[in-house]
Amino acid sequence: MLEQATSESLRSTEHTRWPLEGRPFGDIVAWVNLELMKNAAEIGYARFLYAARTS
């Protein structure tokens, strides 16, 4: 769906809901991407700590 999104649809507030009402949909997409990167980094760090502990 995001591959087919236009610049106008990313600037639209039509698909945003509470608690981010009034924000452009592109902001929501960027926030989700940031959260995924953060979670991947946290999982990677936990795996590193686990490997360091068991070796």
What does this molecule look like?
The protein has one domain. 64% of the residues lie in helices and 0% in strands. It has 55 residues and is mainly alpha-helical.
Annotate the secondary structure layout:
Blueprint: H1 7-11, H2 25-54
Quick overview:
The chain is mainly alpha-helical. The protein is built from 2 helices and no strands. The chain has one domain (2-54).
List keywords for this structure.
elongated; 55 residues; mainly alpha
Helix-residue proportion: 55-70%
Uncertain stretches of 5 or more adjacent residues: none
What is the terminal separation in angstroms?
A: 44 Å
Described by the principal axes of the CA atoms, the overall outline is elongated
Tell me the domain tally: 1
Q: Which structural class matches the secondary elements?
A: mainly alpha
Strand tally: 0
H-E string = HH
Mean pLDDT: 93
Q: What oligomeric arrangement do these chains adopt?
A: single chain
Question: What would you report as the Rg, rounded to the nearest angstrom?
Answer: 17 Å
Share in β-strands: under 5%
Q: Which sheet architecture does the biggest sheet show?
A: none
The tally of helices reads: 2
